[in-house]
Amino acid sequence: MTDNTHSLREAALVSKAWPHEEARKVLKRLGGNAPAKGYALFETGYGPSGLPHIGTFNEVLRTTMVRRAFEEICDIPTQLIAFSDDMDGLRKVPDNVPNQEMLREHLGKPLTAIPDPFGKFDSFAAHNNAMLREFLDRFGFEYDFRSSTEQYKSGAFDEQLRSVLRRYSAIMDIMLPTLRAERAATYSPVLPVSPKSGIVLQVPLEVVDAEAGIVRFEDEGETIEHNILSGGAKLQWKVDWAMRWVALDVDYEMYGKDLTDSGVQSGKIAQVLGGRKPEGLIYEMFLDEKGEKISKSKGNGLSLEEWLTYGSEESLAFYAYREPKSAKQLHIGVIPRAVDEYEQFRGNYASQPLDKQLGNPVHHIHAARGEAVPTQALPVSYGLLLNLVGVMGAEATAERVWAYLSNYVEGASEESYPQLAGLVGNALAYNRDFIAPTLKRRKPEENEARALAELDAQLGALSEDASAEDIQNIVYAIGKDPHYGFEQLRDWFKALYQTLLGADQGPRMGSFIALYGIENSRRLIAEALSDFE
User: Fold this and answer.
1) I need a labelling partner for 322 at 20 to 30 A (CA). Which of 123, 189, 417, 448 fits?
2) What DSSP string describes 354-388?
3) Which of 28-42, 49-63, 207-221 shows the lowest per-residue confidence on average (mean pLDDT)?
4) How many CB atoms sit inside 10 A of residue 262's CB?
5) What is the 8-class DSSP label of residue 221?
6) Residue 225: which of 273, 87, 233 has the closest Cα?
7) Burial, 185: exposed, middle or buried (Cβ in 10 Å; 0-12, 13-18, 19+)?
8) What is the pLDDT of residues 323-356, one digit of tens each?
9) 3-283 and 446-532 in the same fold
């Protein structure tokens, strides 16, 4: 072990960053040694009954962060399984997919047995699984994808299915007290796949021969005996969850707060099956703009594609990292701030001592991708970019934005600042779709007009290459001058934003004027003053 690695390990073992705290729970569980299977197993679960959303991605991201933190505190090998519960029966047609009538014809069947409504893959599950994997691959995650259908049909779960049948009564004793009377009357831990209709049945059944996997139940008015092994059935999801923990010997799996009670019940079932519940973090759910829980079937959350249209991959990871135990709204409006906060934390990283670096979100964001934290600082904030393209209006193009940037920052180009190149495209899209339709400059009040005239005069006395700091000092001085009647400095800034930019909030004006150019900025002031006249 090198000195640097030793120092990192020592710091990680006491780090208060939540991925390290979670990692230490796994290390304690294993007694500091590799388990019999040879590695610590991290798992994430995904139900492909609807299009994957950011909440799905975040669970893989956060689990990967814990996995990488675990690798920083010990030498035990690790593996991450991304498990798709794609043998589940489709209970409801999602609102945000085409060919809904076709899907209704297949309600109740395993997701892998339902045609793809998009017409691109062999099944609905295959389509949604592919979407998830595409994004996980794009972000650079290392994972082993497992399909529930493939696991059941291959016989990989057969021994655990026999174990469920052997302990059928004990499992029923755990589950029945948690169910309403109507549900309890038809509940079974095992969901046989009907040999007649192909539907995943929710019917009471009788165990005939646990070792052979034979059960008896009623199917379309006929009492039949059926073999549940090798794809003949799947388990109710709480039992399935517990069975998977035991079959795969899972050491860590996090889940949402809405599954807290389910986690307790599945933990008890895992004990009945001879295993134990994995370690894990219970995270708060993302909410939409209205404060409602995000749902795959409603499609009321952001899609992965939407976030990446308007913000960077790193900003998405940053938003996922922050305060996982606190509920957060997830909508278009949070993207700009997430981009700039990520950049601020990244800018601080290089100069921080090791213990502070381990508590910096960017350490875990880039560790999850298996890469070092980038050191190049961006010359402008995303907020400043948004204000620039907003003022440019219909003339805003990537080429024109780079023309301004090259005047503001020596040598600025898409080649020299590749990350900024992506943000320019994000800013143009965000402005087009959300800012431009709302911008409306107001007429200045009398005192504001006098202040704007003074700002124009002082800008006229500066050279075109005046620094952002010199310009900011002028802006401050005018706002503080009692002659212009601003009760607070923020009233002056708000006037600048509303009369020049058409928005209620805006950038540091010195930086904006330096970027947009003194002459261009004076033209904005002239337009505002002409409105006053």
Assistant:
1) 417
2) HHHHHTSHHHHHHHHTTSPPP-PPPSS-HHHHHHH
3) 49-63
4) 16
5) T
6) 233
7) exposed
8) 999 988 888 999 999 999 999 999 999 999 999 9
9) no
Q: What angle do CA 76, 82, 87 make, to 5 degrees?
A: 140
Cα angle 165, 166, 170 (rounded to 5 degrees) comes to 90
Are 452 and 499 in contact by the 8 Å Cβ rule? The answer is: yes
Domain ranges of the chain: 3-283, 289-368, 382-438, 446-532
CA nearest to 21, candidates 364, 367, 371, 319 = 364
Highest CATH level, class, for 3-283: alpha beta
> Which residues touch 363 (CB under 8 Å, ≥6 apart)?
17, 349, 357, 373
pTM summary value: 0.91
468-507 pLDDT, tens per residue? 999 999 999 999 999 999 999 999 999 999 999 998 888 8
* Amino acid code (one letter) for 229: L
Give the span between the Cα atoms of 430 and 422, in whole angstroms.
Answer: 12
Token pair 């058409």: residue: 502
Confidence of residue 314 (pLDDT cuts 50, 70, 90): very high
Measure CA of the first residue to CA of the last residue in the chain; give whole Å. Answer: 74
What's the CA gap between 282 and 296, in Å, rounded?
20
Instruction: Give the C-alpha separation, 129 to 394, whole Å.
Output: 39
CB distance 431 to 386 below 8 Å: yes
Q: Please determine, for residue 74, whether its predicted confidence score (pLDDT) is greater than 70.
A: yes
Residue 26 belongs to what H/E stretch?
helix 18-29
Taking the domain 446-532, which CATH number applies? Answer: 1.10.10
527: amino acid identity, one letter: E
Angle at which helix 237-248 crosses helix 260-272, to 10 degrees, equals 50
